[in-house]
Structures are given as C-alpha cells and as structure tokens.
Amino acid sequence: MHPETRRDSGIEKHGVDTIPESDRTGRPRDVAGILLGSNMCLGVVIFGWLPASFGLEFWPAIASMVAGTLLGTVLVAPLALVSFRTATNLSTSSGGTFGVRGRLIGSMIGLLLSLGYAALTVWTGGAAIVGPLHRLFGFPDGGASFSAAYAVLAVLSVLIAIFGYRLLTRMSKWVAAGTLALMALGIVAYAGKFSTAPVTDAGYAMGDFWTTWALSAVAAGLSGPMAFITLLGDYSRYVSPRRYSGPSVFVASAVGMVLGLLVPQLFGTFTAFASGAADDYVGPLVAAAPVWFLIPLLLNGVFGTIGNAGALIYSMGLDLDAILPPLSRVQATILTSVASTALVFLGYFVWDAEDAVTAFVLLLTAIGAPWAVITLIGFHRCRGRYDPDALQVYNRRSRGGLYWFTGGWNLRAVAAWAIGSTIGLLSVDTALFRGPLTEWTFGLDLSFALAAVTTAAAYLLLTIGSPQPVPDAATPEVPAQAASA
Asked: What percent of the chain is modeled with pLDDT above 70?
C-alpha cells in the first residue's frame, strides 16, 4: 500500500504539534469543501429560524443574516492565513502574539465555542430523527427516544472526530452534495405553505424594528463566522505555503464560510416562515413536512449532524490537547465529547431553546472578537513570519523561546483582550442578560463592534514601543519534522 494511502485510511496522528511538510497535503479547495460540507446540518439551519422567532418579516430577516455573515467573514477569513503559515492550530498559533501560555485564552474560547455548537447540532439532529420516526412509524417521541437518538449521534460523531482531518475532508463532500439535494426537495415540499408575514404575534423581540434587526444581524448572521475564529486553522494548517498562495487560502476560506453558512441558514429562514415556527423550529418543521419529505429529513438528521458535530468535536479535542499537553488528541476528543453530550441533555430537559442559543452566541462573540482582532494585528505586524518551534514551548512543557514574554504571557495583549471583552459583555442585549452599555447605544446590540474597536485601540496603544517578535531570516518557517507535542 502506498504510504500516503496508509496515512489517509488511519487515525490522524497529529494533535497541535507542527505539521511536517510531508503531511501538508491539503488544498485550498479542501478548506472550502469542509467548511461547506460540515455546515450542512440542522444545527446551522436553525440559525435561519432565529430572525423569524424575533418577529421579523421574511425579507428583513434575510437581509440581517446576509449583512451579518458578510461582515463576520471579512474579519474571520484572514485567520486561516495564520495557521497556513505556522502549520499548527489557531489557538497555538496565537502564542506568537499572546505568549506561549497566554494563547490558552484562545484555546478556552475555541473549546467553549465548539462545545456549545456541537451540543446544539446534536440537539437539533436528535429532534430531526425522533420527529420523522414518530410520524412515519408511530415511535414514541418522549424523553427516552430523544435520549437514545442523542446517544447514537454522539457516539458516531466522536468516532468521526477520532479519525480526524482526512475523514472529515472526504465525508464533507458527500454530506454537502446530499444536503444540497435535500434542500432543493425541501423548497418544493414547503413552497405551498410559505408566507412572508411574521410567524409570531408577539411583535418585535426587542420592541422595535431596527433594534430587533440588529440583534438578528449579530445572533443569526455575525455569530456564524465568529464560530470559526479558532476552527479555520484546523484545516488550513494542512495546506503548504510551498505549493499554494496565501490569497488562494483566504478566498477558499471566505467562500467556504459564506456558502456553508448562508445556504443552510437561508433554507432555515424559508422553512421557518413556511412552517410557522415561532417558539420552536424542528417540531413545526417536521409537523409541516409532507410524508415523502420525512425520509430525507431523517437522513439529514443523521448524516448532517455527525458531519458537523464530528468537525466541532475534532476541534474541541485539539483545543483541550493544547490546554492539557499530557493528553493525546484522541483522549482529549473523547473527554470533550462527553461534555458536549451532557450539554445536549441540558438543552433538551432544562433550557429554553431560543433564549439559550441567542445568549450563548452573543456572549461568546463578545469575548471571541477581541481575541481575533489581536491575533490578526499580530499576524500583520510580524508579516506572517513565525517561529514554529517556539510556538510549541508550552506543548513540550518547557520554558523560554521567542514568545516567552513575561512568564509565557504577553501582558499587553492579555490586558487589551480583557478590556475589549469587558466592553463587549457590557454591551450585549439578550433575554437572559442586558448589559448596562446598551442604554448608551439606543438599545442596539453593538457588542461585536464595540468589543472589536475597543480592543484594537487598546492593543495599539499598549504596544507602542513594543514590537511584535519576528524570527530572524535564518529561522525555518516550516520545519522538516514536527515539533514534540
């Protein structure tokens, strides 16, 4: 058997170590493909329901999602270039700016983002399995059935995550093709019930149109790209700068995010208005579906869910591996899958769906945006040149190196992140928490914009006279062998 075939067919051997050049066999189109395929699931579709649940009419709902998604992509897509240059994941790469210990901030943000979205994906996927089975065959639709569906989806997802990058890359192509066909059938299935009128009689969620529209742009639009702030590097690290250009990686990442998010979310908005989904999405979606569409819906509930949840659990495993180096990637993946499954059961038995999802994405956007801004400023300042070996100091449980700063922390970057995150959290407006700064923004949720601008200003001011560490010309940017993890 050819050596490359053996690598492709087995469990991925790399964690957050530096990927050696011989293993960097990915292509920019693989990055776009996995971003498209892994998002073709109800866990992403459901974000298209949020604008409808907020009381918006159809076309304002569409406009808010498109505007938020495009804005978020402009900020997030360049992050793929960081791991493209460092050959490791994004949270580890951020050590070049935050310090080799300070990059734990990125690891924690990535872990929380993936944890929440993985739980949401399995939660909605379970409903898409139980609902059709109940209508088709009369299976019970109580807690026991949901629990069984969640358990099966969790096990399949973690198996995909354990095999890792190459299985995810291959699987995403099939999931994308199948789900696009399902959505085309779905438009036919729900077209007769579609209306542009609001689905709820409760009025605008925030009391007036523009405040509600802004909430939708952030919660349903901007939050999508923000979910990728630490995930993009998981795939661009496998693309070699010796064979591909930075612009090709950027374009692939941007196209993959825009299509991977807007296609399923727009389908979610269309079906939300067609099914009259006000307080819940999946239940009305199943109830309004013609019988012939239940099988395609069931198939997406299985394959779309395990594709998306597998990618998210894979990313969680990398982040936990970066936080706890003694763990292997496989061990970290299994532990994080247990945590995400626990959140699934809490989401079903304890929390209110709409309030929990909205609050989750807004709060994490508020603390994730400052980290992304600082990481991108650092990338610009070092002109994309990093010392890959020095980035691995924490993973080797050693000390020193180009990015040691003060005990492994760049205190200026950490302070700027803390300032920006605080402003962001004080500016969010959700049903569960309303920041005091919203009184100064006319009730609009400007948490993302305020957090990003405040962070950039704080970091630039705090680092006056403190240049970004840049390796000298003799330091190889892509080492021939992986650093020790």
From this structure: 92
